[in-house]
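pasting for the record
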Amino acid sequence: MPVEFLGIATTSDASETTERTTASFDKDYLLRIVRAHEDNDWTRVLFAYGSSGPEPSVLASYVAAHLDTVELLLAHRPNVSYPTFAAKSFATLDQLSQGRLSVHFITGGNDHEQQREGDTLTKDERYARTQEYIQIVKKAWTSAEPFDHEGTYYQLADFVAEIKPYEGRVPTISFGGSSQAAFQVGAAEADIYAVWGEPLASTSEQIETVHAAAAAAGRATPPRIHAAFRPIIAPTEALAWEKADQVLGRIEARKAAAGGSISRRHPLTKPENAGSQRLLEIAARGDRHDSVLWTAPAKATGGAGNSNALVGTPEQVAEALLAYYDLGVRILSARGYDLLHDAADFGRYVIPLVREGVAQRDAELARESSDEADAERRAAAHAALARQDAIAAAAEAVA
């Protein structure tokens, strides 16, 4: 099975550890960081969404016009536009990029962040709206005939989109969340289900929950699973942990300089979203899990988004990622703290090792499948010979 790698597209070099050295909006940096992913064998990059940030579909259009192969994952919140408008916008971008678009639908796990753009629905209402929204977008992409829709959140009549996605495809839909409402909606509607990096046992539980919810929704094939991590790599294990300690120190220093906060979007204590609550619960059980999973950054940031790290040599981090692959994770998201250089280093030193490990697993499965087929053919031949012998013996007895 293929493995894919997701990075990040940004317009400045700021991170939890680093004050920006670029302009707050630097289109040249945007191309540099996406090119670093494209040149180092990443599959796609995410254009994230925030209430105060640049509009991600415009950024994705700019990148599509300048770079030829990297795929584009566009984050989108249903509260910011009508679904028919969004469907046309997505299809237009897919045409411009010649089929490189995927869409990640964000329901929103923080009431205050949603209210900044006028969204006052409750969390459960937001999930119900997102499901209805995705269903309309899918229909707009695929329907050749005008259609009506009379739903809880959207009503429309006689709509048909003349602009369709590139060459009749349907862009991949990605979705994430760790609440029961999220599992129900995402497992029913998404092609990819995204979770944050957790210990192997916890990730396995989440995968089982997604698969069960997909089966309950009547799906024969569940969504592919995407897991997200913060890689911290160095030539030796000791140097990697020294680097990790420096990362944590810079996070704490930035928090102190900002009066104890890390983001306007995310509280350090008592986060509303289930995913962050899970990260903090795991961090409370200890800083280190499995082979190289490190939860101290999640604890320091209040479980803000993708915040659990993998710390070690490229070989150790690659082996850890392959353990998630063996659980069923097929999309690996990685974002360092030095955004540009870490994207290049992860692409140079980790991605080839993971791809090699996946290729070895595929080859072994092919051998096992071939051996099973050979065994079945031998058994069938033996059975045929036995039948022939039995027929011959019966004929001889009659004679």
